[in-house]
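Recap quiz, item 2
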Amino acid sequence: MQPAIVVDDIRKSYGKTRAVDGVSLQVAQGEFFGILGPNGAGKTTTLEIIEGLRKPDAGRVEVLGQSPMPRTRALQRRIGVQIQAWTFFDKLTAREQIRTFAALYKVPARRADEALELMGLANKANTLTERLSGGQAQRLSIACAIVHSPELIFLDEPTAGLDPQARRNLWDVLRDLNVRDGRTVVLTTHYLDEAEELCNRVAIMDGGRVLRAASPDALIRDLGGITRINLPARTLPVELARKLFPEATVDTDEQTVNIRTHEPAAILAELATRHALDGLSVHGTTLEDVFLALTGREYRA
Amino acid sequence: MRDTLTIARAILRGFSRDKAGLFFTLAFPLVFLIIMGGVFKGGATPHVTVIEVGRVTVLDSMPADAHAQIDKVLDVQHQSNLDDALNQVRKGHAGGVVEQRGTTVLVHYSTSDLAASGTVRSVMQSLVQTANLAGSSQPARFSFDSTSVNSTAVKPIQTMTPGLLGWAIATGATFTAASTLVGWRKRRFLRRLSLAPISMGTVVAARLLVSLGVALVQAALFLTVATLGFGLRLQHDWWACIPLVLAGTLAFLSIGLLAGARLRTVESANAVANLVVTPMAFLSGSFFSLSLAPVWLQNLSKVLPLRHLNDSMRALLSQGASAWSVLPQFGLLLGFAAVLTAVAVKLFRWDDV
């Protein structure tokens, strides 16, 4: 099957800043693909080049078998894009906004109302967009992006600024779009848990490059099962931790001592005999560890 | 076309809910009209010009000191042709014409400028009485009569309405074009629209459609208030101001487009629009007649599109000019719009980055 997206060595610089520095990707049809990285990693620029919103300095992009630039209407009807911005007409209600977009895609108003419903905005249909909360506006913007049932959906940090409950609700909706409706979804995020939760495959970006692209499971497996043990620095001073567990990696950020190890059992037993279990927490490997392993830096969104 | 209407309807609906926008485009210029229409309602000019046709004894044989008194109120000019003189009154250039028929002193006055004609009549009447009193032993030598010239004289409202309307159109169009463009670009709404299966021509056409419609509403409101509230008399070819308003709107939209092509914030776009439109309004005679300005300034102002919009609308609305006669100005405004739009398109950027 033809891949949904092929990106071949794209580059984009602004002045001396290399925002995108040789990115290559492939996204299969039906995949839920995440571009993960901290702010300034080049995620949005990469996404906008794929969407055809920006012209790369070099490299080649193919979306559903076509070049996204110059834009063709046929391609525009097949993709849906949510961008990070306040992209609404002035002083229209939520329903009027989405119906306007629906009309531009020649989609009946009924489908606009369904998209509102899907995004949990039915009770805000008559509210002016200026009065919506950040999360509601975000969901309306996604609703507008999917109103014409595109086969390929781009979402740029869709859950930024949402409260935890709203994030989980949105995850369910996005998963449905992918699994139930068979849409290909590409999203950028700086939330590691979001990528882990939703994506079939993740590209980890930093400094304008893709460091690794694989399924979250594979990325974590590659690290060989690291366990992370966190405990307050007052429970166990960092110097003592380093002396006790020379095999483990120990670091600290003043309040917390962080121990990464392949053999958590021995360490936990030792901590128990020292009655140092107050405020202790144990985590399996996460994408955070993957990021750390790839960049040598702690992940900071 | 359907897409254009879809977007135009969305813009218009939002505009109709924008109280500040509505006020500044529709109500604010009207407030100006009402204030100025009220202030200049009487058109009271302290010094009234009177045209003396032939010889009028009571004026010519006045003692020197009386002459000095009269000169404070009346500016007496002489003319030999009665018809020419009456025309001056009709056009509002003079407060009245005085002539002597036998022993009757006849004042031709204009009904539209009551203050000026009142001054002329009362001064002339008192001069006749004074002359009669001077020879009190004899029967009255002179009699006084006055007659209206059945005038179509230019009342202040006649010149003021087209000028203020021109200013209102200029402000509305320049500001909407500049701030919509910059605002939509800044919050990347232009980008978002460009993702829908429509061309940018459609988006621009929708914006133009709304601006043209709003300008027509402005003009209709203006003419209604001026006609009903202040006695503006629409001349025969007044309808031709509709295409003029549209051409003027396009010209000022193009100025706003040019200002908006590169500027980054709505505030700076508004400031530039203000900087352009306000001085232009003064220089184009929107608020005050340019007839008192130095000749070089009057000539200079001919490069300004608003000057031509004002002149042509004045000719149509108050001087009874024919629709054909404003064709050159109509063409000029369209040409101006075309040139500036072309430049703006060259400079235009979709994105800030």
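The first helix of chain A runs from residue 43 to 51.
Residues 226-284 of chain A form one domain.
End of item.
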